[in-house]
Write a structure and sequence with these properties.
Elements lengths: L3 H6 L14 H18 L2 H12 L9 H13 L3 H13 L17 H20 L4 H19 L7 H26 L19 H12 L6 H15 L25 H7 L5 H8 L13 H5 L5
Length: 306
């Protein structure tokens, strides 16, 4: 449910035809409320209500497969397995064919019910594939992603940390150069996953990818949390900067330093994220010194519809 980056890699090549009435900020306002009820208050009926309010305002890209999976989680915790299964079917149809492998689902359904659902997955996955406008490009993307995951998950345990870092940098360099060609010259969506690290000479690609990724957020092609995680991680982990911008790259219990902390909520709201206060509550993080909560005007405008 939490693997945002990988999930969105698989969603990048869906046909991008957008409804003119789509209001990204309105969608995210309701989605953030739903996520807060799901993650922090555990008020699942209220979370379901807000998720449905968001989904009514979606477009061809939103709700995403991950969004459907989160709604399924709420229905399960609210005792409605029938609706949960419908949501899981929609998650597969929106690009999460590996949903049967997600650990949080294990044991939540009867064996018979889950077996029946698993039998539906190939047809649901085929539905997803049939709506991809460029299947060859999708296949190439999956191969690059599989290669990246193999190195991160398999090679890591076979070599010492220094050797792994060298291998990872080499692999990232190969993937990033090809991915740059795909996006710059072939018009493919950027995504976050394959250029998660822009080491050394590859840091020159950062302005290009940063601009494209940020633009893709507002059509629902790219997830704002994934973008901000990538941005903050690139700044601090790879480039060695001392601060992050959005507060999305942190330790287990504390925030890494945030630049211009007084305006962090403004930056987060501009991308459709929740406040740093709400994020901290959901992630059990201690708010940094100097932070002052800023109300979100979009949330206030939607209060009458809550």
């Amino acid at each position: 449910m939490k693997n945002i980056l990988f999930a969105f890699t698989l969603l990048l090549l869906i046909s991008a035809q957008y409804r003119t009435s789509f209001n990204y900020m309105e969608y995210r306002s309701y989605y953030n409320k739903a996520e807060f009820e799901m993650e922090y208050t555990k008020n699942y009926p209220k979370a379901i209500h807000f998720f449905n309010m968001a989904f009514e305002r979606g477009n061809e890209n939103l709700p995403s497969g991950l969004d459907w999976e989160n709604l399924a989680y709420c229905y399960i915790n609210n005792g409605d397995t029938t609706q949960a299964l419908t949501c899981l079917e929609n998650a597969v149809k929106k690009g999460i064919p590996t949903i049967a492998d997600h650990e949080w689902l294990v044991g939540l359904f009867s064996k018979k019910t889950w077996t029946t659902f698993e039998k539906k997955i190939p047809a649901l996955e085929q539905y997803y594939l049939s709506h991809i406008t460029d299947l060859n490009a999708y296949i190439e993307m999956v191969k690059l992603s599989d290669k990246d995951q193999y190195i991160r998950n398999e090679i890591r345990s076979q070599v010492n940390p220094k050797e792994f870092e060298t291998i990872l940098k080499t692999s990232d360099s190969i993937n990033i150069n090809r991915h740059y060609q795909r996006v710059k010259y072939e018009g493919k969506p950027a995504g976050c996953f394959l250029m998660y690290h822009l080491y050394d000479e590859n840091e020159k690609f950062f302005p290009f990818f940063d601009s494209v990724l940020r633009t893709e957020i507002f059509t629902g092609v790219n997830n704002p949390n994934a973008y901000c995680q990538w941005h903050d991680r690139q700044r601090m982990y790879v480039s060695g900067m001392k601060t992050q911008l959005y507060g999305e790259w942190n330790n287990a219990t504390t925030f890494n330093p945030i630049e211009d902390i007084a305006n962090v909520d403004k930056r987060r709201y501009a991308l459709g994220l929740c406040s740093l206060r709400d994020y901290a509550l959901m992630r059990h993080l201690k708010l940094p010194e100097g932070y002052v909560y800023l109300e979100n005007r979009t949330d206030n405008e939607n209060k009458d519809n809550d």
